[in-house]
Amino acid sequence: MFKKIIFISALFVCLSSSAQDILGKWKTYDVFDKNVAESIVEIYSIDDRLYVKIVEILPDEHKDDLCNNCEGPFKGKPILGMVILEGAELKDGIWQGAKVLNAKNGKRYGCHISLVAPDLLKIRGFVGYPIFGKTLYWTRVKTNRFR
User: Among 106, 110, 107, 103, which Cα is nearest to 132's?
Assistant: First the structure.
């Protein structure tokens, strides 16, 4: 019985720490050309829910772009600084239950986010069900610890 409690406690600690590993800055890539970097996003957590904000736009000629194809409160707003995902919850190692905004086309998609390696995120965007979607990968932005 004691071994089982230790195992469950260790598993909980591992899952909790891996949930924190997703926080930070990540480089996003074009949905059609995975070699073209599009932006740097910051992933942060409020009350155990996940949020994603665009903090840098790549390349330079798109830094001042507006979300002209968006609807509602996003319409005509600067893409830089926009929160594109709000309130995802961690369930069975996958962040889910929120929609992600594609600022290029103005559409919102269901999404699942999971950490597949220490510096690699898997983002599955979909319409309706995950099977009807596309998978993207984001890479962690390394920070200079000597600054």
Answer: 110
Taking alpha carbons only, the member of 66, 64, 40 closest to residue 54 is 40
Question: Where residue 147 falls among pLDDT bands split at 50, 70, 90?
Answer: low
Q: Which CATH number fits domain 22-140: 2.40.128.520, 3.40.50.300, 3.20.20.150, 3.30.429.10?
A: 2.40.128.520
Q: What is the residue type of 107?
A: K
Peptide bond into 78 cis (omega under 30): no
Residues 120-138 have pLDDT tens digits of 999 999 998 888 999 999 9
The model's pLDDT over 6-56, given as tens digits with 9 standing for 90+, comes to 444 333 433 433 456 899 999 999 888 888 999 999 999 999 999 999 999
Element (H, E) at 45: strand 37-46
Among 38, 43, 33, 11, which Cα is nearest to 115's? 43
Taking CA 112 as the corner, what is the angle to CA 107 and CA 117, rounded to the nearest 5 degrees?
A: 125
